[in-house]
Design goal:
Number of strands: 13
Largest sheet: 5 strands, mixed
Order of helices and strands: HHEEHEEEHEHEEEEEHEHE
Structural class: alpha+beta
Shape: globular
Strand order of the largest sheet: 7-3-11-6-12
Helix content: 25-40%
Radius of gyration: 27 Å
Mean pLDDT: 88
Distance between the termini: 83 Å
Strand content: 15-25%
Amino acid sequence: MPVRKLFVTLSFLLLFTACQKKMYLNERKADTYPITAALPRDGSILRFLQPYKIGVDTQMQAVIGSTDIMLTKAQPESSLGNFIADAQLEGARKIDPGVDISIMNYGGIRLSYMVPGTITKGKLYELMPFDNMLTIVEIPGSVVREFCDFMAQAKGWPVSGLKFVIKDKKATDILVNGKPLNEHLVYKMAISDYIAKGGDNCDFLSPLKKRFTSVFVRDAMIDYVMRLQSENKPLHPEVENRVTYAE
């Protein structure tokens, strides 16, 4: 390359790079430190955390109620799912008595079963470890049908105030509080903020009008069990054919 041409090229490159926005390193790939039993314990950290651990353990071990049956997780309907959906509905109706239905995503239930006996607060934290907030959604009847079809495709989710039959992976015979679904009405639905914002492939809920509350879904469950306890009643949800397969 001629010297003059080389000089012009280098001058252009210097001018071009000088005008660019400066780049800074803002992320560094951290070294990995595998946590295994071989790592020594840090006594000072353990001593620092001990008071907090005692406080948390005391709260989590507090007995808040009992159940006289085995609660299980299953599809299309289960006792464990019905409990959560019912508790969510009761919690929502304390805020807005006009709430019609409650829906819980099946994947959000993090225990496969609960044995008969006492129920501690910690057990409900295990069942629902997420800090999802109770949300009230205004949902047109046409979108209720779409949601029911979605749940039918997913083999059923826990519901309360709602009933439908799964046939050929579609929802049929949809009832809201015992009445046939009216696609021209707008219903109120209790659900978690995660699902209300479109989580778990529920994008069709994103555009709907929502009322986000300050109540954790988990706290609604705790209040539900404690309310039964105050009435000297055990937690006793049953499978009621809310969601069934067509024969």
